[in-house]
Amino acid sequence: MAGFDKRVSSYEEAMEGIEDGMTVLAGGFGLCGIPENLIGEIKRRGVKDLTVVSNNCGVDGFGLGLLLEKRQVSRIYASYVGENALFEQQMLDEEIEVVLTPQGTLAEKMRAGGAGIPAFYTATGYGTPIGEGKEVREFNGRHYILEEAITGDFAIVKGWKADRYGNVMYRHTAQNFNPLAATAGRITVVEVEEIVEPGEMDPSQIHTPGIYVDRIIQGDFEKRIEKRTVRS
Amino acid sequence: MALTREQMAQRVARELEDGFYVNLGIGIPTLVANYIPDGIDVMLQSENGLLGMGRFPTEEELDPDMINAGKQTVTARPGAAIFSSAESFAMIRGGHVDLTVLGAFEVDQHGNIASWMIPGKLIKGMGGAMDLVAGAENIICTMTHASKHGESKLLEKCELPLTGAGCINRVLTDLAYLEIKDGAFILKERAPGVSVEEIKEKTAGKLIVPDHVPEMRFD
């Protein structure tokens, strides 16, 4: 890593500096667009007591489910945590604290965190258990609750293509939370399918400009499908 | 006879208008996509970041990077757009979606909805439901009118933790189509062969019954 060349040559180098107790923001929706190898490296390192911010938490044996298996996560912010039996057990046993967060609020928390906005008002969750204890303000006759932004020590992101400057494009709906997480990590690590030469990607088609990105690595991906649905 | 799930989807589909952007929830709402009337073009919004959801893929089209909010593999139709989760919820929260259809455990006569949590049972999370009900002007809730034990799910006041407050204005159950207005359910239509008496009996909240309540018709 030197100057604008953000490429690193190993996953070990990609996650250098991660420690117990840190907050990790992860891209992905279900198993689509998850940084599967970066998760694998966190598992390999065995760091513990992590706070994970991710829409979902993987499935048994894949994605963030791997970190749950090794009891590396003590708190998770997520909008939906079904499809994971081990996770359910850890939640019931109170081994893990779950902060259920409406999906749009979770996305906006990351977006705001990356944009230097400490908090925002939203109608989502007003009058529900999610709004309890939060500041309420009325604008134009409607009630809104104050939600605080989220930032992370690390953001782990899965992209499609990147150049060495850290400019990233995502593919199809594997975009999801990835560009948001990318903006809100103190150290943002992006793993991609292909590193291309600068200029190969049209600058106006870049989803995540390199200014947000600290490390880039090219990897191989399983891309497991959660619900394979085809028409005959 | 109570409506089947397919008939419920068919009835909801009649509320679609040409040019509508529509978000369909999991379950019966998803089936609505099978009954879009001829001559009507709608764009289906999937909250994971897809506007213009197409059909399920063929084996050849199958792509792990193309899924819907139910995590099923899908395709994008011509005219579709793909974007981030923040953009997706900007369109939802900003009131740009013309119609939202979603399921519920309970609704009440004040338009409150409970759909995400049953205390004492496992909690899986609200996903995008709280954002959808807070952001949409036009929501149809699909649900069974009463539980298997005959307990009404159309209440004076929701008992379960809320998904949203005062946000539901239309409900389609297996027995009836109702509007919610000024603190009451207004009975607009009844399922074929279902009597007003039965609907009254199975509605715990305040119910207003007009002089004439037409029966739904299905081909």
Short recap of the structure:
Chain A: Keywords: Transferase. Chain A is α/β, with parallel strands linked by helices and about 230 residues long.
Structural account:
The complex is a heterodimer of chains A (232) and B (219). With 232 residues, chain A is of the alpha/beta class. Chain A has six helices and 13 strands. A seven-stranded parallel sheet of chain A has the order 4-3-2-1-8-11-13. Chain A is globular. The relative contact order of chain A is 0.19. The model of chain A has no long low-confidence stretch (mean pLDDT 96). With 219 residues, chain B is of the alpha/beta class. Helix content of chain B is 16%, strand content 25%. A ten-stranded mixed sheet of chain B has the order 4-3-2-1-5-8-10-11-12-13, sandwiched between helices. In chain B, strand 2 and strand 3 form a beta hairpin. Chain B is globular. The mean pLDDT of chain B is 95. The chains are: A alpha/beta (232), B alpha/beta (219). At the A-B interface, helix 4, helix 5 and helix 6 of A face helix 3 and helix 4 of B. Chain A: This is CoA transferase subunit A. Chain A: Belongs to the 3-oxoacid CoA-transferase subunit A family. Chain A: It comes from Vreelandella malpeensis. Chain A: Keywords: Transferase. Chain A: One of its GO terms (molecular function) is transferase activity.
How is the secondary structure organized here?
The complex is a heterodimer of chains A (232) and B (219).
Chain A: H1 11-14, E1 23-26, H2 36-45, E2 50-53, H3 65-69, E3 73-78, H4 85-92, E4 97-100, H5 103-114, E5 119-122, E6 136-139, E7 142-148, E8 152-158, E9 161-162, E10 168-169, H6 178-183, E11 185-192, E12 194-195, E13 215-218
Parallel strand pairs in A: 1-2, 1-8, 2-3, 3-4, 8-11, 9-12, 11-13
Antiparallel strand pairs in A: 5-7, 6-7, 9-10
Chain B: H1 5-13, E1 21-24, H2 28-31, E2 43-46, E3 50-53, E4 76-82, H3 85-93, E5 99-103, E6 106-108, E7 113-114, H4 129-135, E8 139-143, E9 154-155, E10 170-173, E11 176-181, E12 184-190, H5 196-201, E13 207-208
Parallel strand pairs in B: 1-2, 1-5, 5-8, 6-9, 8-10, 12-13
Antiparallel strand pairs in B: 2-3, 3-4, 6-7, 10-11, 11-12
